[in-house]
């Protein structure tokens, strides 16, 4: 059994404030017995009045923000995932999903699908990744990594499921708009149900984004949910439920098409 925590909060424009919120959530998740904490996307800084904030706030992985979180993680078995903007060295950034545990960085995944939709253009400042992330093992289960807009592209989730993922993790900053909460719930649920995987999706809340963090099991049942306000919610990722779902709904075995190549 893997216990996951979703830490939902509104990101401020000051990285020190956001780092402290993350540390507080890490401590609460650990105290609650979580093996994995999933935080939102873009947690270094947020300012909806400044479209250049991702460039101004970006830090390398040895910068003060990540150093603070790595120090806070020392001595703990809790794995923590979040997305930060990292300078490319060419005046742009990578939107990078980082996993840390016990003072070490375990994974880095550069977001493949950039949010050039609904009047926004993430690719103005962000360079897309080019590699499918490898799976990470936590508490005996295999975890696949995705970020926000990736959830609209079922081929990535399917590839991770075929690679052996039991759980798909999705940090996000899902922008408000007409029917956007419905889009979020339908897409997160679909990725779980069509791949018979758990999905743990954490959304940033606040003035711009919807929050609505949720865990969906491999038969499409929502087992944990947050609203529009800051929250920390917990859910169990149950291997027996996973095995049952794949026995009664063997979609991965029944498929007739090979997965498309990515990257």
UniProtKB/TrEMBL annotation:
Residues 2-239 form the CN hydrolase domain. Transmembrane segments: none annotated. InterPro entries: C-N_Hydrolase, C-N_Hydrolase_sf, De_GSH_amidase, UPF0012_CS. Pfam families: CN_hydrolase. NCBIfam families: de_GSH_amidase. Belongs to the carbon-nitrogen hydrolase superfamily. NIT1/NIT2 family. PANTHER family: DEAMINATED GLUTATHIONE AMIDASE (PTHR23088:SF27), NITRILASE-RELATED (PTHR23088). This is Deaminated glutathione amidase. It comes from Achromobacter seleniivolatilans.
